[in-house]
């Protein structure tokens, strides 16, 4: 089978009542990185996990950056369109409903870009250590779309103020945005998992 434009892994659902998850890794990760996270957050859900196509040295990413916190915005836009096309194709090929994006760091940033690019593409999003270094307005209508933004109070790479600004933009667009700041740095913690699992169970149901 074609890779649909992205090297990726797909794990079929074992439970029809759980929404599929779109797993988007951070810088230097790959299609395997977040599979254990997805299995923990929603046991039995279908998992779709692509590898970012941009290389920074030898490290895969979903879009180029010029420097820390400085993005190549033209590439960011192009890669968002490319990833959205992949998700649409994968939904057809694997016969899955609208997924919930679960993104970490670089993956969280492309995930919120997908939300703004096409509000009908995803059933929601969990954005872990995301940031927004530019004003993304004008915003689309995201009315009722559930989004969880998890920031680290001691995160030197994605400051919690940036994540809070992102949550505010999403709320301005009408999303049902939940914002939490954890006593953590940039890395994933057990508290992230507990909050994300609880939020997913209470905010998102399987859709077609």
Describe the structure.
The structure is a single chain. The protein is α/β, with parallel strands linked by helices and 208 residues long. It has helices at 35-41, 73-94, 106-117, 160-172, 190-203; strands at 8-11, 21-24, 47-50, 54-56, 59-61, 65-67, 70-71, 100-104, 124-128, 146-152, 176-182. The strands form three sheets. It has a seven-stranded mixed β-sheet, sandwiched between helices. A two-stranded antiparallel ribbon has the order 4-5. β6 (65-67) and β7 (70-71) form a beta hairpin. α2 packs across α3 (106-117). The chain is globular, with a radius of gyration of 15 Å.
Describe how the helices and strands are arranged.
Blueprint: E1 8-11, E2 21-24, H1 35-41, E3 47-50, E4 54-56, E5 59-61, E6 65-67, E7 70-71, H2 73-94, E8 100-104, H3 106-117, E9 124-128, E10 146-152, H4 160-172, E11 176-182, H5 190-203
Parallel strand pairs: 2-3, 2-8, 8-9, 9-10, 10-11
Antiparallel strand pairs: 1-3, 4-5, 6-7
Helix pairs in contact: 2-3
How is the largest sheet built, in terms of strand order?
A: 1-3-2-8-9-10-11
Strand content: 15-25%
Q: H/E order of the elements?
A: EEHEEEEEHEHEEHEH
* Beta strands, count: 11
- Terminus-to-terminus distance: 23 Å
**Considering DSSP H and I runs of 4 or more, what fraction of the residues is helical?**
25-40%
Dominant shape:
globular
Which architecture does the CATH hierarchy give at level 2?
Answer: 3-Layer(aba) Sandwich
What CATH first level would be assigned? Alpha Beta
Radius of gyration: 15 Å
């Amino acid at each position: 089978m074609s890779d649909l434009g992205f090297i990726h892994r797909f794990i079929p659902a074992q439970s029809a009542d759980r929404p599929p998850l779109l797993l988007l890794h951070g810088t230097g990760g790959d299609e395997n990185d977040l599979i254990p996270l997805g299995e923990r957050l929603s046991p039995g859900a279908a998992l779709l996990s692509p590898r970012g196509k941009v290389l920074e040295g030898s490290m895969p990413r979903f879009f180029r950056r010029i420097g820390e916190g400085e993005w190549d915005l033209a590439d960011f836009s192009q890669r968002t369109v490319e990833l959205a096309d992949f998700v649409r194709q994968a939904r057809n090929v694997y016969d899955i409903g609208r997924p919930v994006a679960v993104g970490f760091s670089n993956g969280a940033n492309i995930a919120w870009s997908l939300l703004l690019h096409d509000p009908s593409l995803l059933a929601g999003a969990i954005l872990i250590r995301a940031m927004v270094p530019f004003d993304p307005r004008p915003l689309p209508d995201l009315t009722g779309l559930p989004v969880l933004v998890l920031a680290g109070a001691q995160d030197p790479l994605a400051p919690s103020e940036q994540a809070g600004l992102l949550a505010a933009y999403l709320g301005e667009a009408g999303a049902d945005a939940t914002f939490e700041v954890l006593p953590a740095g940039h890395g994933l913690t057990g508290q992230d998992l507990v909050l994300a699992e609880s939020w997913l169970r209470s905010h998102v149901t399987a859709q077609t």
